[in-house]
Write a sequence for this structure.
């Protein structure tokens, strides 16, 4: 080929490429820089249109560039925000997007208040003390951040009555809506004194500054920057979305942990709607936890201290309530879990009796509950707490023993329990899902691991979460065999490929207290959904690969 | 046909002596960590001593010592490193607990079988499942005191094997606290 031929071919190729390039819709693009680092990778840039409940966030790449998906931001005025530990946004803080693409240069400046930016996991990494000292703090995150503890000024003596008082709050409590238990909770004075003494060493009781250096986790890098995150603000601060899932029409359903409503969100518009659940026990804490579909696709809710279960008919949009029988229904009665997936097999729905560390089974024909103690043959050396549940095709129950370290199978016909201790001691397995191949995927909350129990050959596999103190709450195995997880501590969504052993951690735009996780397998790539339990928002995370 | 390994060469005798010495050393370390006098009812004392004496008495000095080591040193290591012997932490043993079960999983030639599934089934309903460690040892504890040890049946399984025999070594009459040894033998399919 002559030099002339080469030139012609190159020009043709260039013209061809230009001709084939699709016209790009308007969007927002830009770069992120700081004086200290220059171009910055892994900075989360969020844009929220004035008056809209929807915030879209993307992440800057290795060159500091960011780009919102084409057409995702309609024209209008947008407030901008960033997340990058150690930095605040100097400007611009708002832009007006018209019909064409807008390119902005964001400048970050060092923050004056690093403590306000730390995740719970970063507090735990920063705080001095042994793992045993820090272990009780995993319970605190259910209601509030660890920053609240770190900024307190209580001495050990002043802390003890505060801790004793906090034990009397229902576990379905958030800062925007504290709820007291009706039945008093027993407290262990020695344990409280020990914890109070430790907390007084990590707060501001000894002076205006912390005695330890505040440490932050690295910003997202590489694959973890290839993501779009959408947050849908819910209409009230007192909505605490706990379990979230989508339906076949693409609508999002969520249980509200501190109000007696079932929520529905239209992700196309951000409009949210409440379905009020009738009150069963006035003057008791309200709110629901577990949200599960039954064999017909109707949604069931575990009603916590309202003591019972609710079935929501997806066609008529009405509830049918199943209160716990009066003979069993004392002031401590609480249902956090429900498992109706195989109710068509024997007309039975599984649930738990939190106060008695037992499981219960609802007979749909009679509306009566039967209580079973799966640990009756064990001694008293361990405390137990039936939690996350799954049911197989025979309606045999699998549940996580969150108080201890066991996966437990309960035979639907005989009620006999078989207990499988996890390989890691004191793992406190929490929520779970059963896949089509009979594998139980679950989070080992206290062990900081993701795990799998193969129900066919009764073997375990465990994987360490890459970041300490992640405390994963739940795991979802998607259509590609990848695991998705999150929790209350690290503000990160974990994506894990068990085949390659490779983790990706997506940082979320705001402090996020995440419980149940859900993956919509109808999209490619899959879409991750969760509720921000303390942030009154629904989170959608779309990986770009 | 199940054979028990009982062949003793001079090398084996030396190894046995070493194992006994090693286990006595380990017992001494445990005693220094949990100071115990004779008759001390501290559960760590009674359990460690009980386990050591039960094993050396009933299995023979060396094998018992080896098993003691496996259950203490090996067991602790396995638990921390992600092993399967996790249920019934000794330090959690309560006054309401019955005696633990322990033993070897072996093949027809007497070789240890690791990663075998060991099930303790309660006759009245319920079961606890664990896995043998790398040297074929398992331990299951945590049953309620109200459950009679005779009402707990030990079985073992592993892919490619079938259970051939169970050998349960009786405790002395009236002994309700010593660990109970049940060995399980597997045969290749």
């Amino acid at each position: 080929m002559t030099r002339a031929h080469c030139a012609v071919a190159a020009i043709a190729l260039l013209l061809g490429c230009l001709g084939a390039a699709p016209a790009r819709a308007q969007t927002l693009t830009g770069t992120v820089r700081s004086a200290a680092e220059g171009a910055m990778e892994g900075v989360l840039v969020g844009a929220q249109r004035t008056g809209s409940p929807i915030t879209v966030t993307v992440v800057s790449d290795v060159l500091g560039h960011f780009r919102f998906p084409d057409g995702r931001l309609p024209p209008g005025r947008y407030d901008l925000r960033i997340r990058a530990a150690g930095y605040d946004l100097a400007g611009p803080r708002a832009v007006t997007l018209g019909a064409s693409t807008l390119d902005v240069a964001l400048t970050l400046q060092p923050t004056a208040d690093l403590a306000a930016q730390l995740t719970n996991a970063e507090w735990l990494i920063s705080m001095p003390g042994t793992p045993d000292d820090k272990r009780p703090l995993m319970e605190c995150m259910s209601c509030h951040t660890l920053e609240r503890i770190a900024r307190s000024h209580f001495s050990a003596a002043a802390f003890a009555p505060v801790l004793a008082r906090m034990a009397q709050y229902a576990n379905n409590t958030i800062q925007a809506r504290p709820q007291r238990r009706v039945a008093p909770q027993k407290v262990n004075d020695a344990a409280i004194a020990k914890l109070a003494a430790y907390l007084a060493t990590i707060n501001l009781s000894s002076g205006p500054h912390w005695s330890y250096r505040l440490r932050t986790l690295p910003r997202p890098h590489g694959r973890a920057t290839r993501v779009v995150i959408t947050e849908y603000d819910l209409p009230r601060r007192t909505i605490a979305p706990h379990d979230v899932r989508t339906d076949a029409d693409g609508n999002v359903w969520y249980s509200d942990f501190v109000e007696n409503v079932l929520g529905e969100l239209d992700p196309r518009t951000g409009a949210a709607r409440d379905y009020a659940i009738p009150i069963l026990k006035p003057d008791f804490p309200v709110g629901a936890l577990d949200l599960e579909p039954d064999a017909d696709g109707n949604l069931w809710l575990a009603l916590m201290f309202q003591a019972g279960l609710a079935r929501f008919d997806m066609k008529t949009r009405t509830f049918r309530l199943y209160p716990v029988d009066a003979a069993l229904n004392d002031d401590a009665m609480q249902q956090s879990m429900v498992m109706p997936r195989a109710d068509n097999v024997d007309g039975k729905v599984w649930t738990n009796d939190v106060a008695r560390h037992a499981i219960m089974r609802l007979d749909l024909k009679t509306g009566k509950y039967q209580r079973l103690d799966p640990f009756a043959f064990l001694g008293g050396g361990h405390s137990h707490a039936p939690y996350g549940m799954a049911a197989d095709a025979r309606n045999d129950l699998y549940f996580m023993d969150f108080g201890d370290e066991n996966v437990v199978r309960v035979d639907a016909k005989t009620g006999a329990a078989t207990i499988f201790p996890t390989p890691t001691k004191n793992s406190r397995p929490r929520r779970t899902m059963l896949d089509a191949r009979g594998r139980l995927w679950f989070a080992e909350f206290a062990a900081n691991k993701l795990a799998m129990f193969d129900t066919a050959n009764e073997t375990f596999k465990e994987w360490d979460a890459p970041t300490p103190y992640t405390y994963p709450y739940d795991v979802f195995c998607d259509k590609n065999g990848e695991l998705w997880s999150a929790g209350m501590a690290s503000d990160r969504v974990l994506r894990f490929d068990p085949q390659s052993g490779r983790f990706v951690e997506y940082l979320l735009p705001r402090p996020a207290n995440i419980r149940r996780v859900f993956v919509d397998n109808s999209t490619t790539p899959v879409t991750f959904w969760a509720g921000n339990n303390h942030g009154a928002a629904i989170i959608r995370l779309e990986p770009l690969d | 046909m199940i054979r028990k390994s009982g062949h003793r060469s001079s090398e084996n005798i030396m190894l046995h002596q070493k194992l006994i010495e090693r286990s006595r050393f380990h017992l001494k370390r445990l005693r220094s960590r949990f100071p115990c006098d004779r008759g001390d009812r501290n559960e760590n004392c009674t359990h460690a001593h009980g386990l050591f004496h039960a094993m050396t008495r009933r299995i023979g000095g060396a094998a018992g010592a080896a098993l003691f080591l496996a259950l203490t040193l090996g067991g602790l290591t396995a638990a921390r490193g992600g092993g399967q012997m996790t249920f019934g932490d000794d330090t959690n043993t309560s006054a309401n607990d019955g005696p633990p079960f322990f033993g070897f999983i072996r093949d027809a030639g007497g070789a240890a079988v690791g990663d075998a599934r060991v099930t303790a089934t309660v006759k009245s309903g319920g079961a606890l499942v664990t896995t043998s460690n790398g040297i074929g040892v398992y331990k299951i504890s945590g049953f309620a005191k109200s459950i009679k040890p005779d009402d707990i049946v030990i079985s073992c399984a592993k892919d490619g094997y079938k259970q051939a025999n169970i050998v349960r070594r009786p405790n002395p009459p009236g002994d309700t606290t010593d660990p109970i040894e049940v060995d399980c033998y597997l045969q290749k399919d």
User: Anything to note?
Assistant: The helical segments of chain A are 3-20, 120-126, 131-134, 137-140, 146-150, 156-166, 189-202, 343-346. Confidence is low (pLDDT under 50) at residues 8-23 of chain A. The longest strand of chain A covers residues 102-110.
